[in-house]
């Protein structure tokens, strides 16, 4: 069988092959897995055991037989939420981009950053900068503040434990000041940033809720400060909140009160 040591890439490839095999034929023993991979049974067992530890495969009863595990449901669910989010938000964001004539972004929380998963450029956009896939700091962006504001207290404390990086003279780096602002965000339903990430760039964002009443994303409007002035941010906030509420409803969220 050659070198018994597997490279990380080879191990990943073999693990994926196991998942594909189980998806194709259901309950499968180690002997069959080893034959499919062309490896010793001991190697097949180690790979299956690693997948079982992560919940990606399970042994339903008969020792040695494996099937796909519930861990895959969790991963698929996360992917489905993201696909549903972009599918449901796109037409709403396209209308919002026309209404406010600025750039619209949809962002989700990813560990200690906000990640933009979709973008629509408004007719007045003077830049074609693509924010999709980019990680942006939570404390210095309107979307990030929305996502922070709706975290459970312990999760919020963890993300505010490290020093807050300064990007411009207007970046909020005082944790007490930021916490007060996040309280306002929760009460008013939107967050603003005024040249806090980049000089000359302002933004306003509102939360998107899923059917489980959890905030799953933020929709933001951003534009140059000479056009999207502080005064106009307050005006645009209503449109952003309405758009976010529509997307929330599309995702099954039912508002109360």
UniProtKB/TrEMBL annotation:
Pfam families xref list: HTH_IclR, IclR_C
**Matching InterPro entries, A to Z?**
GAF-like_dom_sf (IPR029016), HTH_MetabolicPath_Reg (IPR050707), Tscrpt_reg_IclR_C (IPR014757), Tscrpt_reg_IclR_N (IPR005471), WH-like_DNA-bd_sf (IPR036388), WH_DNA-bd_sf (IPR036390)
Which residue windows are transmembrane per the record?
Answer: none
Q: Boundaries of each IclR-ED domain copy? A: 71-253
Instruction: Report the superkingdom from the record.
Output: Bacteria
Keywords (A to Z) from UniProt: DNA-binding, Transcription, Transcription regulation
HTH iclR-type domain sequence ranges: 9-70
Question: What PANTHER family is this protein classified in?
Answer: HELIX-TURN-HELIX TRANSCRIPTIONAL REGULATOR, ICLR FAMILY, HTH-TYPE TRANSCRIPTIONAL REPRESSOR ALLR
This one is known as IclR family transcriptional regulator
Organism for this UniProt entry: Catenulispora subtropica
């Amino acid at each position: 069988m050659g070198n018994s040591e597997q490279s990380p890439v080879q191990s990943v490839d073999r693990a994926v092959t196991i998942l594909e095999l189980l998806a194709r034929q259901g309950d499968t023993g180690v002997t069959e897995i080893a034959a499919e991979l062309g490896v010793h049974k001991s190697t097949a067992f180690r790979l299956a055991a690693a997948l079982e530890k992560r919940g990606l495969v399970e042994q339903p009863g008969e020792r040695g037989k494996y099937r796909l595990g519930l861990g895959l449901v969790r991963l698929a669910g996360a992917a489905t939420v993201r696909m549903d989010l972009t599918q449901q938000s796109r037409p709403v964001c396209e209308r919002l981009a026309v209404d406010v004539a600025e750039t619209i972004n949809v962002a989700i929380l990813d560990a200690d950053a906000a990640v933009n998963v979709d973008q629509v450029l408004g007719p007045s956009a003077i830049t074609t900068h693509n924010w999709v896939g980019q990680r942006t700091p939570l404390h210095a962006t309107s979307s990030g503040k929305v996502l922070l504001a709706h975290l459970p207290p312990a999760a919020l404390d963890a993300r505010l434990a490290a020093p807050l990086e300064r990007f411009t003279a207007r970046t909020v780096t005082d944790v007490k000041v930021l916490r007060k602002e996040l309280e306002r965000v929760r009460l008013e339903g939107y967050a603003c940033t005024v040249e806090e990430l980049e000089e000359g760039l302002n933004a306003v964002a509102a939360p998107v809720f899923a059917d489980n009443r959890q905030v799953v994303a933020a929709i933001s409007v951003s534009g140059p400060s000479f056009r999207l002035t502080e005064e106009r941010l307050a005006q645009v906030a209503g449109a952003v909140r309405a758009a976010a509420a529509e997307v929330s409803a599309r995702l099954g969220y039912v508002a109360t009160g």
